[in-house]
Amino acid sequence: MYLERHVANLRLGMRLELFTAIGALVGGTVAFLVSEQDLAGLFTVLLVYTALTMARSREPTVPGDPTVTDVPVASAAHAVTPRSASSGSSP
Fold it and tell me: Cys staple from 7: which of 2, 49, 51, 78, with CB 3.0 to 4.6 Å?
């Protein structure tokens, strides 16, 4: 359905699929070769880093600040809404 509307990015999808497979192979090999204690330590370090990164406070945004480039959700959703069946045109 997304391909018919030309919404899907095939190049990006294929690249993500390729690197997902490579990551699975590398991850499986590392998990097989590294001891359980070392894997637990690496996982702990990753979790602590992620938690600290998420907990860091950001600078508060000022309402009306022109440097903020947030796109309203309604505008983004409008770009991918299905076409009405009554239009009579095909993609």
Answer: 2
